[in-house]
């Protein structure tokens, strides 16, 4: 972050990456350097983002997001390729350890340099199994279950399957986007709905349709 002159811009595909950036900027010396010069230097370069949540966090650190309506990595990659020239300065991509290779692959094929930097790791919450067991014992088996990431599928699904038993066939499974839907399908779970774009409104519409197919 201290060397904007080395890069052509920034790419963010998750709110967690911005949380890592905020931790970096908390130190007084870095905070001062950011507000005095670095923020301005980065702002003359593009900051590409996926989704509104990531865009709003980019705005919080004083940068101007682009591409928030893309909604997924595939569309964002196309958006970036339409705006960047091959063999220009690399885009800095702070990301998670479990990032997908879609965006880096598309940009590489188009000759657009991308420097990926792992800034966070996704791990299972220590109370996950206990929390799920508690929910199922108190509330029963839900009518629908929504997943927001492939990691959620990886960490939660096995517990949900055990807790639901044969009744799992009656649960409507929803996904925030195509990547999460693919993870569910790969695990043998039929997906009743995928949000048209990763927003609460679109997800709610999809779940409503799945639960009330005839609007009855």
From TrEMBL:
Q: Tell me the Gene Ontology biological-process terms attached to this UniProt entry.
A: heme B biosynthetic process; protoporphyrinogen IX biosynthetic process; uroporphyrinogen III biosynthetic process
Q: Which GO terms describe its cellular component?
A: cytosol
User: What keywords are annotated for this sequence in UniProt?
Assistant: Heme biosynthesis, Lyase, Porphyrin biosynthesis
Instruction: Using the UniProt record, name the top-level EC class of this enzyme in a single word.
Output: lyase
One Pfam annotation reads HEM4
EC number(s) in its UniProt entry? 4.2.1.75
| InterPro entries (UniProt xref) | 4pyrrol_syn_uPrphyn_synt_sf, 4pyrrol_synth_uPrphyn_synth, UROS/Hem4
Known pathway: Porphyrin-containing compound metabolism; protoporphyrin-IX biosynthesis; coproporphyrinogen-III from 5-aminolevulinate: step 3/4
Q: Which GO terms describe its molecular function?
A: uroporphyrinogen-III synthase activity
Q: Which domain of life is it from?
A: Eukaryota
Q: Which reaction does it catalyse?
A: hydroxymethylbilane = uroporphyrinogen III + H2O
* Domain (Tetrapyrrole biosynthesis uroporphyrinogen III synthase) ranges: 7-203
Function comment: Catalyzes cyclization of the linear tetrapyrrole, hydroxymethylbilane, to the macrocyclic uroporphyrinogen III, the branch point for the various sub-pathways leading to the wide diversity of porphyrins. Porphyrins act as cofactors for a multitude of enzymes that perform a variety of processes within the cell such as methionine synthesis (vitamin B12) or oxygen transport (heme).
- Assigned protein family: Belongs to the uroporphyrinogen-III synthase family.
Protein name per the record: Uroporphyrinogen-III synthase
Q: Which organism is it from?
A: Tyrannus savana (Fork-tailed flycatcher)
Which taxonomic lineage does the organism of this UniProt entry have? Eukaryota, Metazoa, Chordata, Craniata, Vertebrata
């Amino acid at each position: 972050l201290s060397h904007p002159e080395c890069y052509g811009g920034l790419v963010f595909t998750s709110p967690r990456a911005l949380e890592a950036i905020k931790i970096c900027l908390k130190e007084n010396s870095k905070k001062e350097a950011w507000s005095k010069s670095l923020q301005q230097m980065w702002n003359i370069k593009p900051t590409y983002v996926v989704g509104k949540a990531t865009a709003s966090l980019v705005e919080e650190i004083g940068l101007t997001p682009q591409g928030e309506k893309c909604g997924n990595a595939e569309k964002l990659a196309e958006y970036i390729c339409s705006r960047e020239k091959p063999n220009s300065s690399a885009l800095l991509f702070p990301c998670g350890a479990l990032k997908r290779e879609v965006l880096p692959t598309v940009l590489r094929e188009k000759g657009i340099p991308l420097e990926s930097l792992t800034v966070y790791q996704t791990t299972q919450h220590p109370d996950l199994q206990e929390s799920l067991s508690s929910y199922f014992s108190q509330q029963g088996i839900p009518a629908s279950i929504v997943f927001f990431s492939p990691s959620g599928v990886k960490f939660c699904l096995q517990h949900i399957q055990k807790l639901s038993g044969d009744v799992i066939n009656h649960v409507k499974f929803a996904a925030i986007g195509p990547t999460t839907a693919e993870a569910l399908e790969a695990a043998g779970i039929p997906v009743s709905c995928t949000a048209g774009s990763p927003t609460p409104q679109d997800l709610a519409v999809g779940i409503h349709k799945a639960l009330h197919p005839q609007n009855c």
